[in-house]
Specification:
The protein is of the alpha+beta class. It has a single domain, classed as Cyclophilin (Beta Barrel), CATH 2.40.100. Helices cover 14% and strands 23% of the residues. The strands form 3 sheets. The protein has a 9-stranded antiparallel sheet. A two-stranded antiparallel ribbon has the order 1-2. The chain has a two-stranded antiparallel ribbon with strand order 11-12. The longest helix has 12 residues. The chain is globular. The two termini are 19 Å apart.
Length: 257
């Protein structure tokens, strides 16, 4: 069992702002480079199905503290702030087969079925972090209508992670369809805690992201999330606004054992 190193989040964010202020190239992939897209170069050519609202760059948050000063998505109450945690590695979450998970978000509940048979290390890590409260009070720092929502970064910079990485568990054939849950990364073997959920089919995505589950219920919540107003990040390489202007919180994650 790995004991988390808990750090005051405001201190962590203060350091992260200076580190990320000139490198928030959203397209550099999901983990370790900023606002990220599931690609290691430029954002794939997804065509949005919704028309996001664009605001001046100074109105767009660049870190978790910035999101705390925004309205909460779907008129929900703001949860208790996230607590930054770092781990040496995941503990044993004792998972197998199908694992039922509930994402409690500002816009409602999303039920997931995680596949520990196909991606045992990924599911173990996700469940372990969830049961430590790692995701509680965090925000989705990136939403691309017609494509995906990204979450799992307590710093909300696109650079945050749990302090360790997990190996890729790539499928022989990647079926990126609506509702798929997959790990974000910044290249091979770099996945940590950031993940994405697809709003729609994405057959153009390369098979470079570990698929570890899918949505079973709550597609109407995904639809509501897709309509959250967006702004263009200060240094984002996305061709469309992707920074949520109404903060979408993961209030908690329940593992239904």
């Amino acid at each position: 069992m790995h004991t988390p190193r808990i750090i005051a989040l405001t201190v962590v964010l203060g350091m992260a702002v200076s580190a990320c202020s000139s490198s928030d190239s959203a397209s550099d992939s999901f983990e370790g480079t900023s606002a990220t897209t599931p690609s290691t170069t430029a954002a794939p050519g997804a065509t949005g199905t919704a028309t996001p609202t664009t605001v001046p760059l100074e109105s767009v948050p660049g870190n978790y503290v910035g999101y705390l000063h925004q309205p909460t998505a779907c008129d929900a109450d703001q949860p208790d702030p996230a607590v930054a945690m770092q781990f040496d590695g995941p503990g044993n979450a004792n998972v197998s087969g199908e694992v039922m998970v509930t994402l409690n978000t500002s816009c409602g509940q999303i039920e997931l079925v995680l596949d520990a048979a196909t991606a045992p290390e990924t599911v173990n890590s996700f469940v372990y972090l969830a049961e430590q409260g790692y995701f509680d009070g965090t925000v989705s720092h990136r939403i691309l209508p017609g494509f995906m929502m990204q979450a799992g970064d307590p710093t909300a910079t696109g650079r945050g992670g749990p302090g360790y990485t997990i190996p890729d568990e790539l499928p022989a054939t990647a079926d990126y369809r609506r509702g798929v849950v997959a790990m974000a990364n910044a290249g091979a073997g770099s996945a940590g805690s950031q993940f994405f959920i697809l709003f729609g089919d994405a057959p153009w995505l390369p098979p470079s992201y570990t698929i570890f589950g899918e949505v079973s219920q709550g597609f109407e919540v995904l639809d509501a999330i897709e309509q959250i107003p967006l702004g263009q990040g200060p240094a984002s390489a996305d061709s469309q606004p992707s920074t949520p202007l109404n903060s979408l919180y993961i209030e908690s994650i329940t593992i239904n054992r």
